[in-house]
Design brief:
six-stranded antiparallel beta sheet; alpha+beta; 9 helices; Jelly Rolls; Arc Repressor Mutant, subunit A
């Protein structure tokens, strides 16, 4: 990817959206700027110029000026999205075409979702504090990560069954965070020890088993608190936390805000 340092960026808006069950985005009037649009959770579809993309965690789009599209989500699994609208300049000239920009392709499937999400969260934190310069730095970091098209290459055939199991488990954890997951039981069912399966899981997903479970539960908690009338206690119970104190402490550690703050917004 072309070096981003040769270009200047101007952020116009950014945010994190918990789409409601009936959400739709019918963009018939073309966008006027670039939009880094990333799926952190949920399921849906996007249709662009007669091509349909199935949306799920890790899908990242670089929507560009002039593009028209339609997107929606599954009512039972509404999308969680981070967006960033921005302009690109080179030598004082505003760029309006994706092919002229230093950006990666229109669509990428992010491999290391937790790491990519951490970059976006840092960007949003700076943006919310009106620290635009550092927000742009984190945006640039996210664009560089999205542009890294190296994918993990698997070797061997049946020897990679644990790797595939780990990847499938990671997907299940993100789709069903309300379930209880026991590393010991899962490893036993795979015919291995918890320590070995834990290493395979981390190598395959770029995060530990505990990190994956925690991140999934907190993302679903944010969604439930922002889009339903459930109390903080009810959300804690749905996601299987032992008590509301444990839930609130972990939620604040992961998001920087208390559950009650999300409930009030």
């Amino acid at each position: 990817m072309t070096l981003l340092k040769d270009y200047n960026f101007a952020m116009n808006s950014a945010g994190k959206v918990f789409c409601r069950p009936g959400w739709q985005w019918d963009c018939r009037t073309a966008l006027k700027d670039f939009d880094l649009w990333c799926i952190l959770g949920g399921q849906g579809e996007m249709t662009v110029e007669k091509e349909t993309y199935k949306l799920s965690q890790g899908d990242c789009f670089l929507l560009h000026p002039g593009i028209q599209f339609f997107a929606d989500n599954k009512p039972e699994e509404p999308l969680t999205v981070v967006y960033t609208h921005f302009d690109i300049f080179k030598d004082g000239r505003k760029i309006s075409a994706l092919k002229e920009s230093p950006l990666p392709d229109f669509h990428r499937k992010i491999q290391n979702v937790l790491f990519f999400e951490s970059l976006l969260q840092k960007m949003l934190g700076c943006w919310y504090r009106n620290d635009t310069d550092n927000a742009i730095l984190w945006l640039s970091a996210a664009l560089c990560e999205a542009g890294d098209d190296t994918e993990e290459k698997t070797t061997g055939n049946k020897s990679n069954s644990l790797t595939e199991t780990a990847k499938d488990l990671y997907k299940t954890i993100n789709e069903h965070p309300e379930e209880k997951y026991s590393l010991r039981k899962i490893a036993k069912n795979c015919g291995t020890c918890p320590e070995h399966f834990s290493r395979i899981f981390k190598k395959s997903t770029n995060c530990s088993f505990r990190e994956a479970v925690t991140a999934s539960k907190i993302r679903r908690a944010e969604l439930l608190l922002s889009s339903t009338d459930y109390s903080v206690t009810k959300v804690s119970e749905i996601l299987g936390f032992g008590d509301i104190y444990q839930f609130s402490k972990l939620f604040k550690k992961q998001t920087g805000m208390s559950p009650s703050t999300i409930r009030r917004t």
